[in-house]
Amino acid sequence: MRYRIVGDLIGVTVGSFITALGLVAFLIPNKIAAGGVSGLATVLYYVFKFPVGVSMFVINIPLLLLCTKELGMKFGIKSLYGTFVISFFVDGLATIVDKPWTHDPLLAAVYGGVVCGLGLGIVFRSKGTTGGTDLAAALLHKFVKISLGYSLLSIDAMVIILAGIVFDIEKALYALVTVFVTGKMIDVIQEGVTYAKAALIISEHHRQISEELLTRMSRGVTSFQSKGAYTATEREVLLCVVAQSEVSTLKSIVYSVDPKAFVIVANVHEVLGEGFKQADYGLP
Q1: How far is Cα 246 from Cα 225, in angstroms, rounded to an integer?
Q2: Which residues cross the membrane (predicted)?
């Protein structure tokens, strides 16, 4: 338990550093305010010359107090740590990274989103938060009863609109690119890249297909009952998860047994267990 907590704190610290690097090296110097507290702090920096890290921390203070009161002390303490660390790294890196890594706004929007998404994904995977819109969205979700997704979208939209007014519409459009890329990168870190496929197989020759997959591919096969909605006919459905490179082999085996088989192949973001990645998650 203690090692898990230490590991989570290290993850939050590393993720916050990477996120701060994305802000300092790409987004802030190119006036890309991609929503959230960091985006609002970027606008304040160019209007009033307030340090971005300090602004982020100050803006988060009332949110932290409200969240601690409404969502519990444990949530508040974890949020305080993440907020302090990322604010510290943003202003600290600003003294080291004295010029942007690119002056091309499109490259800045894309790579800023990639780096920030990587950092935030690590933070979230470590069960942490960097404050900001996470806190505001949690409060909106609790009091206004709208989903976390819509809460985050609403807050980010307001900040991007403000940035469009203060800077220009083009900067706001680049900010939307960053928001999209950041979200996709967070998903990759949280769920993993699509490296596996799940196949659902419906066939009258399910037993033979199952045996062929087990012996020729050494992949586990799960069988369960289904019923057709139109015919009301009960049939066995086979579920088999394989690597991307094995999809062609699987289809070849299935259709060599039953050319009329019905096969659905879907992306699987993460597979834990024998034959794939081993689970290493401890209890929270």
Answers
A1: 25
A2: 9-28, 43-67, 79-97, 109-126, 147-167
Looking at residue 193, its pLDDT comes to 66
Residue 168 tokens, joined: 């220009």
pLDDT at 65: 83
3-state secondary structure of 146: coil
CB 177 within 8 A of CB 113: yes
Domains annotated for the chain, with CATH where assigned, are: 2-191 (no CATH), 196-268 (3.30.70.120)
Contacts of residue 207, Cβ cutoff 8 Å, sequence gap at least 6: 236
Residue 283 has a pLDDT of 45
**Within 10 A of 278 (CB to CB), how many other CB atoms are there?**
8
Q: Tokens 């010029």 label which residue?
A: 99
Q: How far is CA 162 from CA 66, 149, 259, in A?
A: 24, 20, 59
- Residues (pLDDT < 70) of the chain are 1, 70-71, 75, 134, 137-142, 144-152, 192-194, 273-284
